[in-house]
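cron nightly-structures :: item 1 of 1
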Amino acid sequence: MSDYETSYDPAEEGAQMAFDGRMSYGDYLKLDAILRAQKPLSDAHDEMLFIVQHQTSELWMRLAIHELSAARTAIAEDRLQPALKMLARVSRIFEQLNSAWDVLRTMTPSDYTRFRDALGQSSGFQSWQYRLIEFVLGNRNHAMLQPHAHRDDIHTLLAAELETPSLYDEVLRFAARAGIDVPSAVLERDVSKTHLADDGVIAAWREVYENPEANWELYELAEKLVDFEDYFRRWRFNHVTTVERVIGFKRGTGGTGGISYLKRMLAVELFPELWHVRTEL
């Protein structure tokens, strides 16, 4: 290390070094509150990893909700360009969430068993933010309101989302306004229910994909959705693989079937026609 590196004083270049009465980095980010939020319930070394991984995932999901909600609003208002940017960002968010599984997979079954009992009945499927993301995207299982019945504020938020057109609903409405023939039954459907693949919607996307030059905005939007769902599917797959690697086929702490429950989630299609249309081209 050079003498310059050991004697360098940032104040000589104008860096602020005194923060009495001023906002600091830690103040702005509320780091005291964040860094005090890791409270292991056992003396197991790996419980800190487990807590930090899930807390950071929840922070990324908070940002994903922020971006997805804003993208949906922008599409409903025919402001496609900012929506495309937001959707691209959400894909990168889920890339980060996928990478988090790589860190968690450094925990072995022996490591996990040392603190698993401390979790009680808590389980990732109870994450209300994850559930809100699913609802925003259109996977609307009303039964999944039940784990949140004890929190009126969260239950009300999720129930309200079920009555709101999903991101994909707004995409299809945008396509119809752009002159694509989207079936009226789909446009006027009960948005509280999960949208299922529709032949008429497949035909609509086929029109877009067979002539992308004439439908460039919709073509780009469709590919942004496929890109995002690609990352989302990988996140689900990585979840299954990590759980199987750590606990095998034991039941989850929340009482689900564990691997069997997670594998069912792999079959869920968020934007089904965008995948089915590829067979038609």
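cron nightly-structures :: done
The chain has one domain: 43-280.
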